[in-house]
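Re: protoporphyrin IX containing FE structure - here you go.
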Amino acid sequence: MTFNKTCALGRALEQGAMLERGALVTGHLQLVLAAAVSVLLGWRWLQRQARAGGRRSPPGPFPWPLIGNAAQVGWAPHLSFSRMAERYGSVFRLKLGSRTVVVLNGEEAIRQALVRKGADFSGRPDFASFGVVSGGRSLAFRSHGDLWRLHRKVAHSTVRAFSTSNLRTKKAFEQHVLCEMWQLIGIFLQRSRAGAYFDPWMNVVVAVANVMCAVCFGKRYRHDDQEFRALLSKNDRFGQTVGAGSLVDIMPWLQHFPNPIRSVYRDFKQLNRDFYLFIQEKVHRHRQLFRPERVRDMMDAFILAIDHQEVTGDTGLKLSPDYVESTVGDIFGASQDTLSTALHWVTLYLVSWPEVQRKVQQEVDRVVGRQCIPTIEDQPRMPYLMAFLHEAMRFSSFVSLTIPHATTRDTLLNGYHIDKGTVVFVNQWSVNHDPHKWTRPELFNPERFLSEDGSFNKDLGSRVMIFSVGRRRCIGDELAKMQLFLSVSLLMHQCTLTANPSERLTLDFTYGLSLKPKTFTINVTLRDSMEPLQAAVQRIQEAEAKQ
Ligand code: HEM
């Protein structure tokens, strides 16, 4: 027994000594490894410097092997980047996994890169996830080149032709918004019966998507259509995969063994397939009923331009027929996610600051009256509403970082050398919250956009950066502003929104390509009669029935 004990003790001591020796050896090994890694990094840095001909690359934090600076980016990359910019300057460099990333902060650096050096910064990274969107023919996620230029021209002119190009198209678009807002308000009132509070998110998404469905392929869906809701409910997962700082593309080795990132990417591929099939089915039916002399909607316009007129670019390149699907997919996807997120933030701000809501209602009543309904022509006479919408976009900066860019050639920015193919993150949030440009940017204050005479300060409004700038600037900015103006003016003319007193309202968000507010509930009451709105919708429906 004793022997055994001694033996056991002896073995334990021996094991202890071995462990200690092991620890010593491991300690030495760690030192040797650390030294080797440092030498390797130093050598690679020297090589890079030599390749850059001694030119300076942007400063930045020390990158760790394998993950680089991924741990420093955290849950809200735009906030981390703004903090890093205070230390390293408005142009700095990071390593995310295997990729070098240059981050641009503040208006000067961003305009310098995207506008003055637009050709050098208009590429997209060769990320695997970008190749999955719209069957690999996405306008938004593919890199620059002649085909992209032609694609963008066709898409941009068609979007304008069905929304903002003249008063007739504006009126046609306005009617789609009017019908959807009438439906949405009806549902809000139903869900608010007996003083109930409800989460407005999914109804807002369906209403916004329905406007784009009507414009793109002349169809709308019921709010309780489960298939449509399931399709739209995947917006978050899309944005989390393609948003700047997502781990899917910067650590491709994570795809080789089971882990949450691999599941996210598999989900992403599936949701892109589902979305593409949804659009493909609509295009198929449209092609069967297509008549060139009767262009019914945006989809017909793309079929006409791509299949029949075979538009060509300067270099003679053509878009193949499957660009109809990818273009409609891009426009439908890009618009419904961003616009529903914008309306969700607007709703949150209206219930968070009831005095702002009252001012909007007073202005709408003064300009429109209670017997008519707001129209797009009322916009110039509603400076407070315009100020509120611009403050909502500035304060939320809900597309905090644009879709990632990439350099198209070796280039110089602020005296720093940047290699061709470098990933570039554009921090729009830093522009909208720059304390040197905005007084107390952390406060929500629509009045900042009003001049002394009470008019809307357009110059200041144009300094809010949410649609990006330069060659990749959003092609739907005018449509988006028009839809937001019409939706909010109609909502405020008809209803009062109230926060749930048993809930603590928070301005926190979930990160992705667009920042989403956390769930909140509201109650909606009718201000007086819905008759003028009802009558306007009836007139539209009767006119449609006659066609
Ligand atoms: C409030 C609403 C919207 C916001 C905040 C917004 C914002 C943006 C941003 C930040 C980009 C990326 C620009 C860059 O990478 O530098 C973008 C691209 C794009 N947006 Fe929008 N967008 C909105 C609505 C729309 C709408 C309504 C449409 C379509 C009708 C649309 C279509 C597109 C397209 C096609 C691109 C890709 C452009 C390209 O890569 O060349 N967006 N948008």
